[in-house]
Amino acid sequence: MASMIGLINLEHENDQFKELTYHRPIASIPFAGRYRLIDFTLSNMVQSQIHEVAIFTQNKYRSLIGT
Hints:
alpha+beta; two-stranded parallel ribbon; two-stranded antiparallel sheet; 16% helix
C-alpha cells in the first residue's frame, strides 16, 4: 500500500466558541471531560491506516502539544 499523510488545517477557524477559544484552537476544546475534538479526527486517520499526520495552525497551538 502506498504511503499516505493526513493534513489537518486549523488556520482558518472562526470564533464561534468565543470564551472557549481565546487561548486555544477549536480542535483542542474538551469533549466529555476526557477527549479533545481533534482526537476524533486523529482516531479516524489511524483507523484508515494513516499514521503520518501534519497539523497546520497559525497561532494558539500550545494546547495541541501534549501527551
